[in-house]
């Protein structure tokens, strides 16, 4: 069974996806137990989800404070930065950057070691774009698990 569209995911697929989002290091035997499937069946199902691109990778979540980057900020970027998009890829403090609609051209998520570090980054980018910086005080909603309740109801 190949997955053609998002709607081809069934309840078991979603259970597998939810469990893998909670713990991507879970063994196939344990995953099978959690979703009430045999190890070979769940292994095959995960492989199909990977082959279809539904599962696009596995990763590690790093506590930024523990590695010396306690300040997270967002930058709203607009203006001439459209001509310099490639520069964003060269700035390691930019840990994510999206092109957006509205008054801004880009929203960048930053991780920095100090306010002075953030100010240095602002000074480097100001010649390229107009910037509005927002410092994160605390994370109100952690990354959510993606599940079928997020799909638009028709």
Descriptive key words:
154 residues; alpha+beta; Arc Repressor Mutant, subunit A; Alpha-Beta Plaits; 2 domains; 4-stranded antiparallel β-sheet; 4 strands; 32% helix
Describe the secondary structure blueprint for this structure.
Blueprint: H1 11-22, H2 28-35, H3 39-51, E1 71-78, H4 85-89, E2 94-99, E3 106-112, H5 115-125, E4 130-135
Antiparallel strand pairs: 1-3, 1-4, 2-3
Q: Which bin fits the share of residues in helices?
A: 25-40%
CATH hierarchy: architecture of the largest domain: 2-Layer Sandwich
Number of strands: 4
Gyration radius (Cα, Å) is 20 Å
How many separate structural domains? Answer: 2
What strand order characterises the main sheet?
2-3-1-4
CATH class of the largest domain: Alpha Beta
Quick structural summary:
This protein is an alpha+beta fold.
Explained architecture:
By secondary structure, the chain is α+β, with helices and mostly antiparallel strands. It folds into two domains: 7-51, Arc Repressor Mutant, subunit A (Orthogonal Bundle), CATH 1.10.10; 64-135, Alpha-Beta Plaits, CATH 3.30.70.920. It has helices at residues 11-22, 28-35, 39-51, 85-89, 115-125; strands at residues 71-78, 94-99, 106-112, 130-135. Helix 2 packs across helix 3. The two termini are 25 Å apart.
């Amino acid at each position: 069974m190949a997955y053609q569209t998002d709607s081809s995911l069934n309840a078991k697929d979603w259970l597998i996806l939810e469990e893998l989002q909670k713990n991507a290091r879970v063994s196939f035997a344990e995953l099978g137990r959690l979703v009430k499937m045999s190890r070979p069946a769940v292994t095959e199902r995960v492989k199909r989800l990977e082959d279809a691109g539904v599962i696009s990778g596995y990763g590690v979540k790093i506590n930024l404070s523990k590695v010396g980057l306690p300040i997270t900020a967002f930058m709203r970027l607009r203006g001439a930065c459209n001509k310099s998009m490639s520069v964003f890829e060269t700035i390691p403090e930019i840990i994510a950057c999206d092109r957006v609609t509205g008054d801004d051209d880009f929203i960048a998520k930053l991780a920095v070691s100090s306010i002075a570090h953030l100010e240095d980054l602002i000074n480097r980018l100001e010649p390229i774009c107009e910037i509005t910086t927002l410092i994160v005080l605390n994370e109100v909603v952690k990354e959510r698990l993606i599940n079928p309740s997020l799909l638009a109801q028709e």
